[in-house]
Write a structure and sequence with these properties.
Layout (H helix, E strand, L loop, with lengths): L6 H15 L10 E3 L5 E3 L6 E7 L4 H17 L6 E7 L4 H10 L4 H13 L1 H13 L8 H11 L2 H6 L5 H8 L2 H17 L7 E4 L2 E2 L5 H7 L6
Parallel strand pairs: 3-4
Antiparallel strand pairs: 1-2, 2-4, 3-5, 5-6
Helix pairs in contact: 3-4, 3-6, 6-8
Length: 226
């Protein structure tokens, strides 16, 4: 006996292969995860090419690199799923450490935006850090209190307020012992184990890139997507 099958179900069944094939590809540029060492990895975790950036927030060359490379890396490399980008810290001083902990506020979903905003506004807050460092007024000696003072008086907290963070949230971020441990461990690895000569520094699939510029990094990566 032949059963009656509603026309709508027949149409749906016929369309199923097309619907399956039309499933959207992963948006790799929106995916950020923690690496085992505490770095932030943007992109496909199984990407065959893995770029690692070692940066210092008080480094002007790092700011220039991020400004030049962030867009091309997203559109031409990470979006394809073939390249992932990991940001690791190579802290140089207490100001850089403060910025590194602040950049981690809000978790992995907020990191890349915080990271790029801090570098994009470096020209605004670095002069305040220079002035703060040269001020002979007494400063807190406790590490956490010192970083809070730096954040409040150099424009870093004000910058992050524009990104929706409250002073209470920022205070908690610079006082986070787990984040501090990870940042310092990455720093130790960069300077003492990998023995980078300065920042920014890069590896592609664990091989050092022969230069601190976007041109040098781009030459070490596979061809970009058109």
């Amino acid at each position: 006996m032949t059963r009656f099958v509603p026309f709508a179900l027949l149409a749906l069944a016929a369309a199923a292969p097309a619907m399956l094939s039309a499933a959207p590809a992963p948006k790799w540029t929106a995916q950020v995860a923690f690496s085992p060492v505490g770095g932030h990895v943007m992109g496909n975790p199984a990407a065959p090419t893995k770029l690692v950036e070692y940066v210092s927030y008080t480094c002007s060359h790092c700011a220039h690199f991020v400004a030049e490379s962030a867009g091309p890396l997203r559109t031409g490399y990470v979006s394809t799923g073939k390249v992932s980008v990991e940001v690791r810290n190579a802290v140089r001083d207490k100001y850089d450490l403060t910025a590194a902990l602040i950049a981690r506020c809000g978790g992995k979903a907020r990191f890349m935006g915080n990271h790029e905003a801090i570098f994009a506004n470096q020209d605004a807050w670095m002069p305040k850090i220079i002035a703060y460092d040269g001020d002979s007024a007494a400063k807190p000696t406790d590490q956490v209190a010192a970083m809070r003072d730096i954040g409040q008086k150099t424009g870093l907290y004000a910058l992050m307020a524009k990104r929706g963070f409250t002073p209470k949230q920022l205070d908690a971020c610079v006082a986070d012992p787990a984040a501090l441990k990870q940042v310092l461990a990455m720093t130790n690895h960069a300077w003492r184990e990998l023995k980078i000569s300065g920042t920014p520094a890069f590896t592609v699939n664990d091989k050092m890139v022969g230069g601190p510029t976007w041109d040098a990094v781009r030459a070490a990566l596979p061809a970009a997507a058109n």
